[in-house]
Amino acid sequence: MEVLKGMWALGLVFVAISPLVEANIGEFDEVWQKRAAEAKKGAQIAYEPNPLNVTNDLNTQTHKVSEGHNNTRRDLHKYSGPCVATNPIDRCWRCDPNWAKNRKKLATCVLGFGRKTTGGKAGKFYIVTDPSDNDMVNPKPGTLRHAVIQKQPLWITFAQDMVIRLNQELIMTSDKTIDGRGVHVHFVGGAQFTLQFIQNVIIHNVHIRQSVQASGGMIRDSVDHYGSRTMSDGDGISIFGSHNIWIDHVSMSKCKDGLIDVIQASTAVTISNCHFTDHNDVLLFGGSDSYSDDKVMQVTVAFNHFGKGLVQRMPRVRHGFVHVVNNDYTHWLMYAIGGSKNPTILSQGNRFIAPPNIACKQVTKREYAQESEWKTWKWRSENDLMMNGAFFVESGSPVSGVNKQDVIMAKPGTYASRATRFTGVLSCIKGKPC
After folding, report:
1. How confident is the model at residue 2 (pLDDT cuts 50, 70, 90)?
2. Contact status, residue 311 vs residue 280, Cβ threshold 8 Å
3. What is the pLDDT of residues 65-107, one digit of tens each?
4. Which of the four pLDDT bands, split at 50, 70 and 90, describes residue 336?
């Protein structure tokens, strides 16, 4: 327990400040300095000193919705029956035929470490009518870039089906929801979403694929500020020094760098109901072994399908605490879950199907550490389903020492294929369950 106690107490002992990485910011001026300072304070507030309070709550909610279902096979047929919500997040909103009239109910449905995220719930609706992205300094009203730089909370929707190519990274501001339900929104072949030193953002029901590096230059990042940016990384979504973030029902593949990066002391993040395919470095949580401020990082990875063509990093973790629950890992080429620098990883009720390669059956991979070091890291597997020779190398003592009264453990891995049956972008029609 000594390792966990030390980590859970971080909210009280933030004394040493690691050097700030000024990623992609060409000129780290007073505006960015203020944002960085506010983000650091916000992360300390968002940090949960007892993360098992969050994981146990998610376990309880999952048990309620999953009772009575037990299956080790993934149904590959397209579902055409009545609406079925197979996990507690979806159960909150998906089968309501009036979802389009009550879009903001979605903001009450998030669970896990990002559970306090409300996005643009407190604001007005902004309808994107123009898929273009031509002016980085003075974005055209009606475009997504114009919407995400506004100061006030906004719930952003789309007027019709769109294919959007971001010419430079899309730098968002706080208190925004991007809601792609009811239409088909594809972000293809453009720059990344950048959530840098902000809070309270929801990205929901959009396709993101083939993101590329962009050259940078002068880019507006709020209504009253723009500045020089260096080349972006080519991630799908970059979460940098930000907190209270929820990524849900997003389909992602084939980006230049990672699909989702959660770095630079980002925390209070939930990634749920997503479908990941055709990519090498999938999820990176913590960008540097030397950046110890990432000890504040807490991420929930729940109800996602890690599908065909994936190689590694699902996720790869440094320093923080990650709850990996009821995901379906049907493909990997090297390993599924990896890390370095003493992260805590709690894997519960996932299904892991190992690849044919006998050398890659192990789910886990510790990097840059001898066993004498990593044997104390808390990496625990509870009720995971191991198939085709998959095995999870545990380390550290069991996560314990909390009040487990009324706590029900996560459903076993035999339920994971059902929990993830409707991952990725949903085809939602107004007036019908989604």
Report:
1. very low
2. yes
3. 655 455 555 565 677 778 999 999 999 999 999 999 999 999 9
4. very high
CA dihedral 418, 424, 429, 433 (to 10 degrees): 30
Cβ neighbours for 342, distance < 8 A, ≥ 6 positions apart: 3, 319, 374, 376, 377
CA dist., res. 233 & res. 23, Å (int): 9
The answer to whether the predicted template modeling score (pTM) of the entire model surpasses 0.85 is: yes
Q: What is the pLDDT of residues 364-398, one digit of tens each?
A: 999 999 999 999 999 999 999 999 999 999 999 88
In angstroms, the CA 357 to CA 343 distance is 27
Q: Three-state SS for 301?
A: strand
- Contact status, residue 114 vs residue 137, Cβ threshold 8 Å: no
3-state secondary structure of 157: strand
Average pLDDT, the chain: 89
Please tell me the distance from the alpha carbon of residue 421 to that of residue 423, in angstroms, as a whole number: 6
Cα–Cα distances in angstroms (integers) from residue 51 to residues 10, 70, 185, 298, 385, in the given order:
12, 28, 35, 8, 24
Distance CA 401, CA 33 (A): 40
Q: Find where tokens 């792609």 sit.
A: 180
Beta bridge partners of 310: 279
Residues belonging to the chain:
434
Beta strand pairing call for 243-248 and 321-325: unpaired
> What strand order describes the sheet that includes 243-248?
124-128, 154-158, 176-179, 199-204, 243-248, 267-272, 298-302, 321-325, 344-348, 379-382
The residues assigned a catalytic role are 313
Exposure string for 397-412, b = 16+ CB within 10 A, e = fewer: eebeeeeeeeeebbbb
Amino acid at site 119 = G
Backbone conformation region of residue 276, classed left if phi is above 0, alpha if psi is from -120 to 50, else beta: beta
Query: 271 pairs with which residues across the strands?
Result: 247, 301
Question: What residue type is assigned to position 297 of the chain?
Answer: M
> Exposed, middle or buried, 68 (CB in 10 Å: 0-12/13-18/19+)?
exposed
| pLDDT score of 169 more than 60 | yes
Q: Taking a C-beta distance cutoff of 8 angstroms, is the pair 319, 77 a contact? A: no
User: Measured between alpha carbons, how far is 234 from 300 in angstroms, rounded to an integer?
Assistant: 23
8 Å CB contact between 188 and 209: yes
